[in-house]
UniProtKB/TrEMBL annotation:
It comes from Nothobranchius rachovii. CDD domains: Bbox2_TRIM59_C-XI. Gene3D superfamilies: Classic Zinc Finger, Zinc/RING finger domain, C3HC4 (zinc finger). This is Intraflagellar transport 80 homolog. The keyword Zinc-finger applies. Coiled coil: none annotated.
């Protein structure tokens, strides 16, 4: 390990007289014997095989990004700056996000994380006072509008109440006039109808009398 290799470079426990040793070291992978460079452990060549194994293990254990709902099995590995949402490669090339500016997930996460603090920083004391004044003004405007609506409602109720009284009186007057007209019709036609019926009876009596004489 790196700690053990570093200890080979230390001649004394006194850090002030620390100096490197040129000692032969056997590679645990290929078994080749090499001298430790003067620059120390950091100057040794990288174990490519071990690094590949570590990277593969990290990739296998890394959380998989969610899949795109529009394009089957395509990972959401990009961030659309314009629409502020995760997209896949097909969304960018042939989908509805074609031509939109994008960012990688890590940078987008950092930017979005910083956005609230930036907004709070921009919201100065003066702007906050303006926002408070605006909220108060809106509340006052709302109260005034509600008062006007209530007043108009009362006026409408009063108008139709008066109108209902007028219509009721007119209805009563028209019904009285119609009742009077009906009485006049009866007065004019009832005597005539009665006289015609009497004539019918007299005629029937004459016909009956004539038949009995014959």
């Amino acid at each position: 390990c790196k700690t053990c290799l570093d200890s080979l470079l230390q001649v004394s426990t006194n850090y002030s007289i620390w100096r490197p040793l040129r000692l032969p070291i056997k590679c645990p992978n290929c078994r080749s014997v090499v001298e430790l460079p003067p620059m120390g452990v950091d100057a040794l060549p990288t174990n490519v095989s071990l690094r590949a194994i570590i990277e593969k293990y990290q990739m296998n254990n890394a959380p998989r990004p969610p899949a795109c709902q529009e394009h089957h099995r395509q990972p959401l590995n990009m961030y659309c700056i314009q629409d502020r949402q995760l997209i896949c490669g097909l969304c960018l090339t042939v989908g509805q996000h074609q031509g939109h500016p994008i960012d990688d997930l890590q940078a987008a996460f950092i930017n979005e994380k910083q956005t609230p603090s930036l907004l709070l920083a921009r919201l100065s004391e003066q702007r906050w006072a303006q926002v408070c004044d605006l909220a108060e003004q809106l509340e006052q405007d709302k109260a005034r509008c509600e008062a006007l609506v209530r007043q108009d409602k009362q006026e409408v109720d009063q108008f139709f109440l008066v109108l209902e009284g007028i219509l009721a009186r007119k209805k009563h007057a028209y019904l009285e006039a119609l009742d009077k007209a009906a009485a006049e019709v009866s007065l004019a036609y009832d005597p005539l109808i009665h006289r015609v019926k009497e004539l019918q009876v007299e005629q029937l009596d004459l016909v009956s009398l004539g038949s009995s004489v014959e």
